Amino acid sequence: MEALRKMLPHLFSQDWYIGVWAVVTVGLLFLTRYLTKEVQTLTAPDSDLKMLRTQRQKLNVCYSLFTTFISIFPLWGMFGTVKSLLSLDMNGDLTRVQENFFTALTSTAWGILFAIGFKVANAWFVSIITEEVLEKSGRILDRPARPPKGTA
Prior knowledge:
Number of strands: 0
Largest sheet: none
Oligomer: single chain
Number of domains: 1
Strand content: under 5%
């Protein structure tokens, strides 16, 4: 817990890009959940197929972006590490070297922590439900159209 307390101030200062990426990813998570529920309600037998197709496409894009954003967190962590280490000046004050080295480590840690957290969230309550809804809606959209009632 002590390490996390020391790292927290860095999240929106030196590692701001990871913090912003996390906020956007949370937004994508909630949007994916919302669209999943929307598509789920549109899988009823009397639903508008055009609306289902549109919402399903939005859900597919949103879910793909969410899973892609998760996989980029470790890369942001490595970027922060490299950025901090490249700015090291070994000829100067050692205090500055320690600060840059700590920033390098916090970048890596934040990238790993967010990747793990969002991967768990994805596995726990997003992927199972979302993939099931996408599959079910795909079956509905792929079946042959029924002729309107009263026609032979």
